[in-house]
Amino acid sequence: MCRLRSCVPLVGLCLIVSMLLAIAGCHRSASSDEKADRVESTPHSDQTNGFVVHLDREAQKRMGLAVKVVSVSTYEPRVELYGTLESDPAEVFVVRAPVTGTLQASHGEWPTLGSKVADHASVASIVPQLAGADQLTLADRLSTIQAEVQTDSASLTASTAEYERLKTLNAENQNASDRAFQEAEASMKGDQARLEAARGSEKLLQAALHGTAKGSFVSPLIAERGGDVSQVLAQLGETVEAGQPVFQISRFRALIARLNLPLSQPAALPITSAVISTVGDENNTIPASFVAEAPTVQSEYQSETLLFRVTSRTGDLRPGQAIEGWIRAKGGSPQSGVLIPYDAVVRYQGRNWVYVQATDTEFARRAITLSEPGNGGWFATAGFQAGDRIVVVGAQTLLSEEMKSQLSSDED
């Protein structure tokens, strides 16, 4: 009897434990179902090693997505080159001092690096400084003029006194004739004119001799062709020699692209053109025309160097920028592929990607290698095919949506 009573609580305890396990199992099952639902709504890997973003038509319209169907194109294999931009010698001008002298500003401000200069503009001026022999000549001439000033001053004093005397006599009952009075007046005015001229010459000679000349003694520095001040080679108040460079003015509408051709990848001859882009801006390519082979070899590369002339569309290219270039490869035969528009390419995690519309609501992200530039895009020979619907407007927005979905998935 006692044994029966002790078994009843044990049975009850087992029933309670069984019920708790069942409830816990149901909770785990429900949690797994919810998690599975969330995973299905996040981006997932597709067969093209990219990722897929799900968007309904309303969301696509809201984002302004636009796609383009690509078709088969052909291209010739090219050699990829690297190099830098340099100033075009034909677009660089030097303003030199016309005479030896002291530099001064023309319009109150001394030109600085980057200052804009118009064609035929006066960028500064120079006060001439005379050589030793010229200074001696001027000093001798100044002494002569100063003696003339003293002589003319004495003559004017005497002729003025005679004029006043005859004027008084002429007024008193014609004691001096009118003719004598007029001759005295003419003599006085002549002495006065000579004295004024001598004093003027004295001032000019003193100004020229002591470097304080103004007006006609100041020589302007004229920039025959305008552009941007790229170098300031002398400063305000500095004394420069005749012919010394003062400013360098450059135009950046045309530059020289110096590209290094690898010896292992010969180019097709004759070389007539290339396509270049600045490093980091590969989606914007610029045509370049062949100029010549460089007359010297750069020791750090030990490769053939080619020079091309580039015309900047926007004027923002500058010497020293690192560039990439492409020219036709020797012996390369045309190949087939598709042309991916520049605007379709987005960059993420150090790689380049393109979104392809897989279905009405799915957009797959696929990797692309930017090695063959074409007219308005990049050639792709793998990973894409004719008929693919490429996102050309809104690719960056799709990438943002994908990143947000991934963050939400990680938080869950």
Give a quick summary of the entry:
The protein is α+β, with helices and mostly antiparallel strands and 412 residues long. It has helices at 2-40, 57-63, 132-171, 178-210, 395-411; strands spanning 51-54, 66-69, 72-75, 78-87, 92-96, 101-104, 116-117, 121-128, 219-223, 227-232, 239-240, 245-250, 254-261, 273-278, 286-293, 304-311, 322-328, 335-341, 345-348, 351-357, 362-367, 377-380, 389-393.
Class based on secondary structure composition and strand pairing: alpha+beta
Alpha carbon gap, first and last residue:
56 Å
**CATH fold-level assignment of the largest domain:** conserved putative lor/sdh protein from methanococcus maripaludis s2 fold
Tally of individual domains: 4
Query: What's the total helix number?
Result: 5
Instruction: Name the helicity range.
Output: 25-40%
> Averaging pLDDT over every residue, what do you get?
79
Strand proportion, as a percent range, falls in 25-35%
Low-confidence stretches: 1-15, 23-48
Assigned CATH architecture of the largest domain: Beta Barrel
How many β-strand runs? 23
**Largest sheet composition:** 6 strands, antiparallel, barrel
Q: What's the arrangement of strands in the largest beta sheet?
A: 4-13-16-15-14-17
Rg over alpha carbons? 45 Å
Give the C-level CATH assignment of the largest domain.
Mainly Beta
What is the approximate shape? elongated
Order of helices and strands: HEHEEEEEEEHHEEEEEEEEEEEEEEEH
